[in-house]
Amino acid sequence: MTILAGEVNSEIQQQLLSRYRRVRGETEQLADPLSAEDMQLQSMPDASPTKWHLAHTSWFFETFVLRPHLPDYRQFDPDFHQLFNSYYNSLGTPFSRPQRGMLSRPDLDSVFAYRHSVDQFIGKLLDEQPLSQGLETLVTLGLNHEQQHQELLLTDIKHAFSINPTFPSYSDSTQEEEDTGPAEELRWLRVAGGVYGIGSEGEHFYFDNESPAHQQLLQDFSIASRLVTNGEYLEFIEDGGYRDPRLWLSDGWAHVQQNACKHPLYWQKREEGWFQFTLHGLQPITYSEPVCHISFYEADAYASWAGKRLPTEFEWEAAAFQLRRPDQLATANLLEKRALRPLAAGRGQTQFLGDLWEWTSSAYLPYPGFRASSDAVGEYNGKFMCNQKVLRGGSCITPAEHIRMSYRNFFYPHQAWQFTGIRLAGD
């Protein structure tokens, strides 16, 4: 039987529309445990209200997909163009990020009406318009953008809930006993030096900052078989790690002093022992689980204390590919598992995917030959390549289809509200 080009295109459109509905539905499912009051909260300038995440992801599809590609499309509300623009200055002046929590209007019902209107028109577009490569690329980018905001939705509401002295729980589910067992003994995995391919290119999706694919010369190095645990980090605390300036970078020591840092974000010492705030509420620390919500400064200081260092992002990628298991993605602790917290490394698990974003020592810089596109979408990644550090591997709240070994996340060195952790390396 001969399959016509139009039939193939139609099948791709339906697959894309099916994925669109699934990803958009997942966002609303993640918001479902929250009240309207919860969704209004903004606890710090780096975070955004859930309501804003719901609207901004819809703004992205309206702005970059519907308005250019659907003839006679009319904006749901012209005021939304400014309110829910994040940082695309070439499209206008975005509303002040630190004040997003002040936007009580539009109300939550209007935001959901906006989402559902956008969904209806995306369905119309994908059902009726021929699927060009450019349109498919933009919709796919929008879906990956939404999955980034699914992760931010959870990190931001966790920070907001942590301020409440009653320590409310986002999820009441608890972990199975086998998930919180002892961590596998740490081993040092040797990786031979040589020229390694780094980055991504080809037909599958990747962000522009993962390209161009290129080669990097690496020296022999070793890398830890798993992430640093709560118990191991507690030894650093009890040995005076936060009081010894010799362990810290100058900026890191200044940050520790100015903010009176004595332990990781969300940790607290009580009469009964150490506790940490989680998406399941306040919980006793499980010493075998990876230490979580660590800044780059803390990760670097711990590595100095341990007599090791953090891997470069190129070492991390080379090791992750060389040491990967066939079932690595299927067994990884990612969003679909709904653990919503990092878990102790089980037998044979290397945790290169899932559990926690891993700090590297690498500055977030363009790969050789990188050029951001000249249109508004070019503002997505390139303009942030200054004063930030690269993280790799995804976390327990990263969607499985969103993560890749080549994925480059990036944050400022002092930031710790994301699900970040430590993997050590050595020469």
Automatic annotation (TrEMBL):
Domain DinB-like stretches = 20-151
Q: Which residues form a coiled coil?
A: none
Pathway this chain belongs to: Amino-acid biosynthesis; ergothioneine biosynthesis
Q: Ranges for the Sulfatase-modifying factor enzyme-like domain? A: 188-320, 348-425
Write down the superkingdom of origin: Bacteria
One Pfam family per UniProt: FGE-sulfatase
Q: Name one GO biological process term.
A: ergothioneine biosynthetic process
Which of UniProt's keywords are assigned here?
Iron, Oxidoreductase
What's the protein here called?
Answer: Ergothioneine biosynthesis protein EgtB
The organism named in the record is Microbulbifer marinus
Taxonomy of the source species:
Bacteria, Pseudomonadati, Pseudomonadota, Gammaproteobacteria, Cellvibrionales
